[in-house]
Amino acid sequence: MSEEKHATRRVLATFEYDPPKLERGYANQTLYVNLERNEIRPKLVTEEMKAKFIGGRGFDLWLLWHAVEDHTRWNDAENEIVISAGPCGGIIQYPGAGKSIVTTISPMTDIVIDSNVGGHYGPLLKFAGWDAIEIQGKAAEEVVIYVDGVEGRVTIEALPPEAPDDTYHLARWLIAQFAPTPEDERFMSAVTAGPGADHTLMGILNFSFYDRRLKEHRFKQAGRGGPGTVFRDKRIKALLVRSGPVRANSNNVADLERIKRVGLDMQKEVREFDPVQNRMAYRGTAYLVQIMDDYDLLPVHNYRYGSHPETPKINGDVWEPRFTHGPADGCWYGCSVACAHAVTGFELRTGPFKGEIVTAESPEYETIAGVGANLGIFDPDAIVELGFYCDAYGIDTISFATSTAFVMECYEAGILDKEKTGGLELHFGNAEAALELLHQMARGEGFGKIVGLGTHRMKRYFVEHFGADPAFLDDIAMETKGLEFSEYVTKESLAQQGGYGLANKGPQHDEAWLIFMDQVNNEIPTFEDKAEALHYFPMWRTWFGLCGFCKLPWNDVVHPKNAYADEPQKIPHHVHNYVEIFNGVLGVEVTADDLITMSERVYNFQRVFNLRLGKGTREYDRIPYRAMGPVTKEEYESRQERYDRQLRDLLGLDPEAMTTEEKMAALRRYREERYEQLVDAVYERRGWTKDGIPTVQKLRELGIDYPEVLAVVQRHLRR
To answer: Which of 221, 338, 655, 673 keeps 20 to 30 A from 390, CA to CA?
Structure first.
């Protein structure tokens, strides 16, 4: 052991196993760990699980369903952290096949949260012999769970006392400690949560991946809904996995040549068209910033506005020269989209690591839009630092940004002042105050402790302690089901309002992103059209999470011939690719319609799961009015020409004869009514009741009419 490997490893439990050879994408077993009993054991993956729940999010939901009770809450011992990659996860021939899904009962929403994440842990866990890991109970002390797929051993170990606390340093330190040789570090991955997950409800999990060019471990985040908070509540400091080298056919697929053919075709598309379309391989999702601003979709000042004159200071042109970029920038092998860039040699200006030179993850669109434009911060260095510390502390950048934007509007509206915030001047644009707030959240101190509760709970706190108007807070607090909105302005897209409000886990764009189809291109003009889109696209995107795929290769690099397809918004050529890959991995012959049915089954199961936990009905699908239209007079007048025209053209009113308050009230009645009509149409298309409950007939059609599932539904139907 080298001098760096000085930690004493104290093993609390050991399980020996023979790593199985994968069979058509499956290890055919999952790993169960109970931290209260120090129990480690395998569970058989049944044919029923594979046929109906596929993998990834499906396996997660199935395992979690059988682990919890109707009354289980996020910090109960029986709640679980479940991670699965899916049968196609880990193939290297097609870009974007390294995703896995983390599922748990959320501290933010009190229902199931699923969070998709890149990095190496999910695929390497499968190559180590496990289709999923589920962790239950709470440890008596801080522990590391290590899966060694080379030696065939799983251990629960006490955390060495000298281990760092933040995720940036801890994951790298642990991998160096546990790797038999430096060469083995390439095929290891860590999952960690930081101190911010101890002191807030919005804790994330960082999944490491080995950067072959920088020769260091970097991170992708499972960010939504607080899985890191659950992780730390269980006293888990890290998950570690070690696998043998990743091979061309580590998944032992049914038809490797079929997958290679499809992969070569897509890799060629990426090479030819990404440089002239979105430049993902050079600037990642930062390319979206200017596009969103141009279409009035970039959230500014708590979603009041959709654009800002200073956006060119933080758009893709600014980020590209700051980022590393090249073929090694994929978060899984074989991904030529290569969007996982870094900002190397970045010197931190604040916080506990002030003056340290770090490799920061390049901020994604959501981070740039959130801690940037939504907070009125147009300083790239401040955005990188806020993003770095969110990751290092283990705090979701989206929830942090949206919660802080809410706080800043409350500050400027006079609900908050320096006395209430402990001296923080939380005006829009104050990067120094935003950073100090973030540091407080990580320490669980001051006003940061309140913000760490999230937007939903802050509303009640501000009413009870500061005398705020609850109706105003409900209008401007951008959350639904307890989860903060991701970073898009939806005022002019009814379909995207539904995409956020009707999402099972809360308002996250990875379920349905319909703004361009609806607002820009007017491709779905009727309620029926929108309802059909809000059926197909959430189901299609759900399928990625069942199998281990990233959505970016589906719709962010597109062959020009797609414009002439019958349904170009679905990108049918790429849909065909995924059908071919699924059939090639599993040795089946399914169609594109079958993929949608797979997702519909899991999606409806998750809806029933929400019902079981006490939510999942129509009242939880409502959205704040700020997502529909202007809340304040200033907001209306900033787009007065647009809104006045709508009053004339849509409602037949004369805006010249009305006060601004009267115009706002009329527009609000119209928009709220349309949202309810949309909800009716979507429920009908999905086979749900008027209250959003899947019907017994629908569950039978999907083959998930299990007695315990029907019991939940029938209980609600009788009310």
So the answer is: 338
pLDDT tens figures, 211-223 = 999 999 999 999 9
Please list, in sequence order, all residues whose beta carbon lies within 8 angstroms of the beta carbon of residue 495, skipping any fewer than 6 positions away.
Answer: 512, 514, 515, 517, 518, 524, 530, 533, 534, 678
Cα–Cα distance, 400 to 396 (Å, whole number)? 6
Q: Is residue 480 part of a domain?
A: no
The number of distinct structural domains making up the chain is: 3
| 379 has pLDDT over 80 | yes
23 DSSP 8-state letter? B
Question: Which pLDDT value is given to residue 6?
Answer: 62
Query: Do 629 and 685 share a domain, yes or no?
Result: yes
Those residues whose C-beta lies under 8 Å from the C-beta of residue 522, and which sit 6 or more positions away, are: none
Q: Print the domain residue range for 353.
A: 278-475
- Please report the pLDDT score of residue 5 as a whole number: 62
Q: What is d(CA 424, CA 447) in angstroms, rounded to the nearest whole number?
A: 8
- With a CB cutoff of 8 Å and minimum separation 6, the contacts of 260 are 93
CB 541 within 8 A of CB 547: no
- Average pLDDT of the chain to the nearest whole number: 96
Residue with tokens 């079958």: 594
Pairing of strands 100-105, 236-242: unpaired
Q: What angle do CA 352, 358, 359 make, to 5 degrees?
A: 135
374/396 Cα distance (integer angstroms) = 15
CA proximity to 125, closest of 154, 96, 156: 154
Beta carbons of 60 and 301 less than 8 angstroms apart: no
Using the structure block, give the residue that is written with the tokens 């995207």: 496
Please count the other Cβ atoms lying within 10 Å of the Cβ belonging to residue 88.
27
**Is 345 in a helix, a strand, or coil?**
strand
* CA atoms 676, 678, 684, 688: torsion sign: negative
Question: Domain check: are 545 and 693 in the same one?
Answer: yes
End-to-end Cα separation, the chain, in angstroms: 65
- Residue-by-residue DSSP string for 126-168: HHTT-SEEEEES--SS-EEEEEETTTTEEEEEEPPTT--SSHH
CATH number at residue 393: 1.10.569.10
